[in-house]
Amino acid sequence: MAVTKPEVLAGERKRAARGTLLKDIARDRYLYLLLLPGLLLVLVFKYMPMYGVVIAFQEYNIYKGISGSEWVGFDQFTRLFHSPDFGEILGNTIIISLYKLAASFTLPIILALLLNELRSKLFKRFAQSVVYLPHFISWVIFSGILITFLNPVDGLLNMIIQRFGGMPVDFLGDVRYFRSVLVISDVYKEVGWGTIIYLAAIAGVNADLYEAARIDGASKLKQTWHVTLPAIRPVILILLILSLANILEAGFQQIFLLYSPLVYDVADIIDTYVYRVGIQEANYSYATAAGLFKSAVAMALILSVNAIVKKSGQEGLW
Amino acid sequence: MTPISGGERAFNAANIAFFILLMALMIYPFWYMVMASVSDPDLTASGGLFLLPAGFSSTAYQAVFQNVSILSGFKVTIITTAAGTLIGTFFSAGMAYAVSKKRLRGGKFFSLLILFTMLFSGGLVPSYLLVKMLGLIDSYGAFILPGAIGAWNIFVMISFFRGIPDELEEAAKIDGANDLTVFFRIVLPLSKPVLATVGLFIAVGYWNDFFSSVLYATEKDMWQLQMVLKDLISNTSQAISQAGISVAVQQQVNPFTVKMASILVSSAPILAVYPFLQKHFVKGALIGSVKG
Asked: Which residues of A touch B11 (CB under 8 A)?
């Protein structure tokens, strides 16, 4: 008896646990009902494509489907890594990303500091509204604006250049200028929106610190350097880390709408390559391999970044 | 207040001047398009618009509103945006509410399932093949369903729902309400701010989407507005000749002014609601960042 008793108890506990589990599920049935439609969409449109990446290890044939297509192991990846395109698209992706990072990481901080110095509340609010606005305008419309203004024949910018005696420049068709156009137009569109988080962080800085600095005779510039910037450093760090983790996102829509074969050498990134090779040329397996390479590296980056942040004693991303 | 030093005054003046210049730079492209779109087509052909319109003509706008592709693009985009925003907002809210309840069995698993979609995605080609396999090509489903649920929105909502006091729910339950009535009668009305914020972000996403048309629309009459615009921007004269514009207007139409007018007309809805909703947009960006 003494031997079997614990087993009986464990069994009973298990049965009881199963009982409460079922009871809990029955109790929360309406919660599961609320969860269900969204869950279905997530499973179908997020998880099915994750399963779909297995075609990167196949020679996918659209008529045979995943189950009927031939498995080829890592052949697609070997082909990808040995292709001359690979170095170019990876290089372009990282270079464009780093250029954008350099500009779009520093400028919003400076702009937020300047906005914060505006004395008139009304003017400040108005300035904010105006600089946030481009964020909500689509890249299609922005590309239309850029194409119009930069047109080598009758674009406004080239008319100004010509009036000052210069030669017209084909900004969107010249490998020397294309990346600058990408970076500048990206900054133009997003710099204002990028200030929001910094402005909130600056507003949260303890006013006593400024008071103390002022009593010590610190100038505005010194207050900014010794009070504001150190206070918002955690926010700056988190945003920097996040953008480093997103290094393989070079801005697909923008490039897709602005580039042309003339500038593929400097503008073709992983995403545009996957679209052209995968969708337009229907090399499904090969393009999926390129896409999977990108997703896998991106995931590894964000996981290691989060681990490093947590190890350094800061709060992680999750 | 300590007296303002001369240096500080100079800085303030320079700062204001800087922002006036920056705002001018941000507004000018839109002003330029307004000028170009209302100018006399014959006068703009010679170029040289800078600060003021040349003459006045409404032919560009007549051409836009008679253009069947633009009208059809508006139709497709309005249906997509309305249905997508509704589905996206309410399905996300339902999911977020269920997961926000700590007592829910499997809640942790479901939230991990959502989180993982932020870390990894199947990518373009498998998503495209899936939509194709489901038979959604040239249907609204292809524009609406794949992007309806976003992990970010769900986490924003979860953190909001967790802030609603449990007592409200308990009191309603004592009065005989179940989770569904609590959700619809109590939680949703209390959550208007977060619903507005998330809904707006979703709506802007649908309104600005063109790439779904690139992927999933083979018929031109299923093109979203932004896709029609993209086509118009890259080859204006052709797009205009295809559309059913009356001959009278067609004769005096200038592709350039029409292009400008179409861009303005299609961004008008966002420009019109933006000033009123800016507060929500900003709040959304902040909730998201705090959560992150």
From this structure: 117, 220
Q: Which residues contact A179 (CB under 8 A, 6 or more apart)?
A: A95, A96, A99, A266, A267
List of residues 6+ apart from A316 with CB closer than 8 A: A306, A307, A309, A310
What the block records as the tokens of B6 is 């001369």
Report yes or no on B42 lying in a domain: yes
Q: Which tokens hold the place of A153?
A: 């024949």
Architecture of domain A79-311: Orthogonal Bundle (1.10)
Q: Which of A28, A42, A132 sits opposite B179 (nearest CB)?
A: A28
Could you give the number of structural domains in chain B? 2
Q: What pLDDT score does A234 carry?
A: 84
Q: Which of residues 176-195 of A touch B (CB under 8 A)?
A: 188, 192-193
d(CA A138, CA B270): 10
B33 touches chain A (CB under 8 A): yes
Confidence of residue B255 (pLDDT cuts 50, 70, 90): confident
Q: How far apart are CA A300 and CA A119, in angstroms?
A: 45
B202-234 tens-digit pLDDT? 999 999 999 999 999 999 999 999 999 999 888
The Cα–Cα gap between B274 and B280 comes to 10
CB contact under 8 A, A284 and B103: no
Least Cα separation, residue A3 to chain B (angstroms): 34
Within 8 A of B207 by CB-CB distance, chain A residues are: 138
Same domain, B251 and B165: yes
- Residues B113, A192: C-beta atoms closer than 8 Å: no
Q: Which domain holds residue B23?
A: 1-57
Question: How many angstroms separate the CA atoms of B145 and A179, rounded?
Answer: 34
User: Which of chain A's residues have a Cβ under 8 Å away from the Cβ of B120?
Assistant: 50, 295-296, 298-299
Domain contains B288 = yes
Same domain assignment for residues B126 and B37: no
- Same domain flag for B76 and B152: yes
Q: Does residue B36 lie within any of the structural domains? A: yes
My answer on whether B29 and B91 are in the same domain is: no
B70 vs A contacts (CB less than 8 Å):
none
Show Cβ contacts of residue B30 under 8 Å, excluding neighbours closer than 6 positions: B264, B271
Cβ of B16 within 8 Å of Cβ of A118? The answer is: yes
- On average, the pLDDT of chain A sits at 90
Q: How far apart are CA B292 and CA B287, in angstroms?
A: 8
Distance from CA of A7 to the nearest CA of B (A): 26
Mutate to test the interface with A, among B110, B125, B134 (most CBs of A within 10 A): B125
Tokens (6 digits) for A53? 């990446």
- Report chain B residues whose CB lies below 8 A from the CB of A45: 127, 130, 145-149
Which pLDDT score, from 0 to 100, does residue A316 have? 66
In this structure, the answer to whether residues B272 and B149 fall within a common structural domain is yes
Q: What is the ipTM of this complex?
A: 0.88
Question: Which of A37, A242, A298 comes nearest B91 by C-beta?
Answer: A37
> What are the sequence ranges of the domains in chain A?
4-73, 79-311
B233 and B285 inside one domain: yes
Given a contact cutoff of 8 angstroms between Cβ atoms, the answer to whether B129 and A52 are in contact is: yes
Q: Which residue of B has its CA nearest to A120?
A: B16
Chain A environment of B97 (Cβ under 8 Å): 31, 34
> Rounded to whole angstroms, how far apart are CA atoms A198 and B26?
21
